[in-house]
Design brief:
356 residues, mainly alpha, three-stranded mixed β-sheet, three-stranded antiparallel β-sheet, 14 helices
Length: 356
């Protein structure tokens, strides 16, 4: 049955895309169906006496979070995150992002249903790396990064819903809650042409939802959990402050009237200074190495990706406040905005005119 469904889906995609991307779309659909096939209801796992105590605790916790997401955050009440799969690999997919050498604008790819997005995902890392090599050969700056989970925007509820995965089930409690809330938010509203809008919205739901979840915990254990989460948030904010400053400096450089040769030299100097500043920040954290990998590989694509995920989050926070912290009203307004043309959507969300 699933092979037949895959063939029909590929046929439809072929008609929509002219078969130009059939090979890529085939790996996407096939990889997702294999992921779905690996998932079983959480209760089935919990009924298995051989299940490890650690995984049993995490799966039970995830279901409490799932219930909270419906009751407190008014997120969709469907089959998503009520099944679990162990994929036997460290990521659900590997995304490829790319920019020009002297630009912070993400290259985009367009697909049926999803529209145009600033990344290209692969279920096999080797395939992602091979495609990244092609882009580098074209002179682009590229990043390949692991993605622990992704949303199918509710489409997979026909097949049992987006599942919990081994790639994130062992996250610290606050991060696990945030992951579930973030991915469910994508099922609430989605603008097919606006990655920044979609990810910033989901990040806003993730942050507010996680804070609400942690507020339920009482006593010393609750205080310790919130303190640890706050420490992570503060360091993340410092990371963003540092990278936002350098993204602004790079953007100013790239849009200046200097020659490309001068821009390349200035860019190299900025990236060297960035890593020196990070070394000082890391020292103030007592040597926390959580961001080492990011800075070791940092390039234009890295900066562009950061902007896609959080740049509009403050605007969504303000929108939620204007709606009286009423989640249902907030979602309705976000859904309305998602239907608007991109410039109008951005203008209404931020309260600022968007220049053509």
């Amino acid at each position: 049955m699933r092979r037949g469904a895959l063939a029909l889906l590929l046929g439809g995609l072929c008609l929509l895309s002219g078969c130009a991307q059939l090979s890529y779309l085939g790996q996407s659909v096939g990889g997702h169906l294999r992921l779905m096939q690996a998932a079983r209801p959480v209760q089935d796992w919990l009924n298995d006496p051989a299940l490890s105590p650690e995984l049993r605790e995490r799966l039970a916790l995830s279901q409490a979070m799932r219930q909270f997401s419906v009751q407190a955050l008014k997120l969709p009440d469907n089959d998503s995150y009520r099944r679990y799969a162990d994929l036997g690999r460290p990521a659900a997919v590997w995304n490829v992002v790319a920019t020009e050498e002297l630009s912070l604008t993400l290259k985009t790819w367009c697909y049926p249903v999803m529209g145009c997005v600033g990344y290209r995902g692969y279920f096999e890392r080797a395939e992602a790396e091979a495609y990244a090599a092609q882009l580098r050969a074209e002179g682009l700056e590229v990043q390949v990064y692991p993605v622990p989970a992704y949303s199918t925007l509710g489409w997979s509820n026909l097949l049992g819903g987006d599942p919990l995965l081994n790639t994130f089930i062992k996250y610290p409690e606050a991060e696990l809650a945030g992951m579930i809330f973030h991915e469910l938010a994508h099922q609430v509203a989605y603008a097919a042409d606006d990655t920044q809008f979609n990810e910033s919205f989901a990040t806003a739901v993730e942050r507010r939802g996680t804070a609400a979840w942690l507020a339920r915990h009482e006593g010393a254990a609750g205080e310790a959990l919130r303190a640890e989460h706050q420490r992570r948030l503060e360091r993340r904010a410092q990371f963003r402050e540092l990278t936002d400053a350098y993204r602004g400096r790079l953007l100013a450089l790239y849009t200046s009237d200097q020659s490309d040769t001068a821009k390349r030299a200035a860019k190299a100097a900025l990236m060297q200074q960035l890593r020196q500043d990070y070394a000082q920040l890391k020292s103030s954290w007592g040597g926390d190495s959580g961001y080492d990998a990011w800075f070791a590989r940092a390039n234009n694509a890295s900066f562009a990706l950061l902007a896609a995920y959080t740049e509009l989050t403050p605007a969504f926070d303000a929108l939620l406040a204007r709606e009286g912290d009423d989640w249902a009203r907030f979602y309705a307004e976000v859904q309305r905005l998602a239907k608007l043309p991109k410039p109008e959507r951005r203008s209404q969300l931020t309260g600022k005119p968007v220049l053509p």
